[in-house]
Amino acid sequence: MTDTIDKRARELAEYVLQTGATVRAAAEQFGVSKSTVHKDLTQRLEQTDRLLWLRVRAVLEQNKAERHLRGGEATRRKYELQTAECRIPHAK
Predict the structure, then answer these.
(1) To which H or E segment does residue 88 belong?
(2) Among 45, 71, 77, 78, which residue's Cβ finds the most Cβ atoms within 10 Å?
(3) 66 is in which domain, residue-wise?
(4) Whole-number Å distance between alpha carbons of 91 and 43
(5) In this structure, what is the dihedral angle of CA atoms 78, 30, 61, 39, given to the nearest 10 degrees?
(6) What is the pLDDT of residue 86?
(7) Tally of domains within the chain
């Protein structure tokens, strides 16, 4: 069982490194929870492959630093969509 978990942690790490994916995106891609991805990448990987863990940690820190920008962008798009819907005349 540990081999399977270690393999998943490595696959998650490679995916994050190749795509720059967030924890949420990686979780969706692999069909596991965000908690599982986070634990695999921050705890399990550190125990099994420290060099890979250091590389992944840099991506995770960058994503964390940028998350407020992504959230703001999502909010902006939400309100633009709502405004556009209000301007569309309703058919009678």
Answers:
(1) none
(2) 45
(3) 2-87
(4) 56
(5) 120
(6) 81
(7) 1
